[in-house]
Design brief:
394 residues, alpha+beta
């Protein structure tokens, strides 16, 4: 039947069939995508990258937090989770790492008390044959800002996501209690059908009537596509997510209607659609979801939704104007929402550290010392994206 009728078999996103598709996407990327092996600076990532300070061992029973400095080797593979925390009104009291819970969490994490998104992230990590998962709320000490752990780890965020084998994105979830897996809605061909052409057939086997099945033209609307799912999500409005999008080499999106695979060379939908090859996409299209990486010049162009960087600016090998590029990044970043306003600099610090590392410029609280005069001399422009007035919910 599948050979005769094009379409997608609907199955739960946590089923063996869905997990098999994810594994196929990842394996294909690892085996054949050269660009997906490169960092923002154009450096090659090895299979075993430097591990973050802490990781969740999802293979332990129960799962537990580990300090990677205690491992026999401090390099390896791990996955990251990108999601909306949400507010306390969205779910129960948030389970997070504190100084008081650090020792206890290294013995066992309170799995049943964890938000569903984190539980589901552990399931996907295990299903892909991986042992370690990085989650910000459980791998960074959240009440240790004065002692420095939070600031130290936050400054490494770009490196953490960049070195990860893949980032699991809870794109459809408005808060951490909703999880990764949303039920799939089949089109039954009835009066509310999304397709304008459908046919209904009775199905019987050996004289026994089993029911009806429907054949229809593709009924996938804009809201179910890669563009529609990402643009309409709360996830894509988060300031912290901007950095996670830019630095991740591979992202597995869990949407409401289907899964999406996004890497530096292609974007695929669960229904089999290849959105567009990164090599074929034009500049404005490349800017829609946060990343443009140019291996030809060993530097990376960073942008965000519906914005195009000017192609005429010189790059590193020709004397790049990093300050102008940074201003464009900040313009896009500031349009995103954040729960704590004093996190605004911290949530972009990882990208700044990467730019500083390959440019040699010294970064200081959103400005560059080599160009401090121009950094302080600015006026608003009509083209600037407005920062949300209700900058909450990150």
């Amino acid at each position: 039947m599948r050979r005769l009728i094009a379409g997608r078999v609907l199955y739960p996103p946590n089923s063996d069939m869905a997990l098999g598709k994810i594994h196929k996407w990842l394996t294909s990327c690892l085996d054949s995508h050269n660009e997906c092996r490169e960092t923002l600076a154009g450096e090659l990532c090895s299979k075993d990258n430097l591990l973050p300070t802490r990781l969740i061992d999802v293979t332990a029973t129960p799962p537990r937090l580990i300090e990677t400095s205690t491992l026999p080797k401090t390099t390896g593979q791990y996955l990251c989770l990108s999601y909306c925390w949400g507010s306390l009104s969205d779910s129960s009291e948030y389970c997070k790492l504190t100084r008081a819970s650090l020792t206890k969490f290294t013995v066992a994490l309170p799995f049943d008390a964890l938000p569903k998104t984190i539980q589901d992230g552990m399931l996907i990590t295990r299903s892909l044959g991986q042992r370690y998962l990085w989650v910000d709320s459980l791998c960074i000490i959240q009440d240790d800002e004065a002692m420095g752990d939070w600031h130290t780890e936050a400054s490494k965020m770009c490196q953490i996501y960049e070195n990860a084998l893949c980032t699991i994105a809870a794109t459809a979830a408005a808060h951490s209690g909703e999880g990764l897996f949303f039920p799939r809605q089949a089109d039954d061909g009835g009066p509310n059908s999304r397709s304008d052409k459908q046919a209904r057939f009775s199905c019987s086997v050996n004289g026994s009537r089993l029911g009806d099945f429907f054949i229809s033209t593709p009924a996938v609307g804009y809201s179910e596509t890669y563009d529609g799912e990402i643009e309409s999500s709360r996830w894509s409005t988060r300031a912290w997510v901007f950095q996670e999008q830019v630095c991740s080499r591979r992202i597995l999106h869990f949407g409401k209607h289907q899964m999406f695979w996004e890497c530096l060379e292609c974007t695929r939908q669960e229904d089999g659609t290849v959105v567009k090859s990164m090599n074929e996409r034009r500049w404005k299209a490349d800017m829609r979801y946060g990343i443009r990486r140019s291996s030809a010049h060993r530097a990376r162009i960073i942008a965000a939704t519906n914005y195009s960087l000017t192609k005429s600016l010189p790059w590193h090998s020709r004397g790049i104007d990093y300050v102008l590029e940074w201003n464009e990044i900040i313009n896009l970043y500031n349009a995103r929402s954040i729960t704590r306003k004093y996190d605004r600099l911290a949530a972009i610090d990882g990208i700044a550290q990467e730019i500083s590392r390959w440019s040699g410029y010294k970064y200081c609280y959103g400005l560059w010392l080599q160009d401090i005069a121009r950094g302080l001399f600015w006026i608003p422009s009509q083209n600037l994206l407005a920062r949300p007035s209700n900058a909450t919910g990150a």
